[in-house]
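Appendix B, example 12.
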Amino acid sequence: MTQIAIACQGGALHAAFTAGALKKIFERQADGSYDIMGLSGTSAGALCAVAAWYGLLTGGPGEAIRTLDAIWADFAAVTPTERAFNAWLVTSLRLQGHWLAVDVRFSPYAPYFPAMIAQLRLMGAREEFIDYTALLEKHIDFDAVRALQPVNRPWLLIGAVNVLSGDFKAFDSKLSEIEVDAVRASGAIPGFGTRAVRIGEDLYWDGVYSQNPPVRNFLADPETTDDKPDEIWVIQLNPTTRSSEPKSVADIQDRDNELAANLSLGQETKFIADVNKWIERGHLPSEQYKIVTVRTLTMSPELSESLDYASKLDRSPSFIEMLMAEGEKQAEIFLGED
């Protein structure tokens, strides 16, 4: 079987598309044409990757699908308080993009922040909505994960960045580094109420500032070709191109976010393409290097063009369900092209 590594790009709530795509990939895995040897993810892509990885470890593809469904159902805004807060946040971001509202970003270190979270609790927001750790620990038994590691197959990599040194970090299941704090670190967006995550002596922020998602590690870290994938499937949330020039504040902000999010991915896939050329020309030893195909799974251009920056924070169930359905649809097309 073709050995596959799946890399899940971060893009906040747009990663519901990734969850749908992964579900379809696992559903079709029973056909026997491919085997998933590794997963990587950054930010909300890391949420998808760790949920899928945990499901594969504990029950196979069916359990991976169940875990993805359950974790995204709880991630959505469900109670009246959660829906009201979600509507306020998304609307404020959109108005801000048209100079009609003040900046809604805030520091998680601000003295009023704990009071705001406490107020949400009192008004009926669930812990899974407010506390990312509670969401993760409800659906993933990290004590069991700790006991299972090191895990070589399926291999899991989670991207983050060291806030102080600027070094990229890929938390690695082969090194027993997959903990709840690693997943939290990969999704720690400081401008939207998440403090840096301390792991040992280091502080980490969202992996969108580093590898989004980790790709090159699948080829650079293993010593032999037997431990490297034949193909890397990148589930890309941020479009590479746009059809028109961004002019409004909202459109400029959106495009700026997309370009920044794609920077490391473009560099890593170019590195793989260059190595493939060097192998073909006989410049690299075949026992250590292999030609690897990189394939990209994306949203339809029509949907991608219609989504704005504010939608990346939209946790409404209908929006999440729409993106998951689009992920399943595009994965079906993607698998048919194989």
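The chain has a mean pLDDT of 91. The first strand starts at residue 2 and ends at 8.
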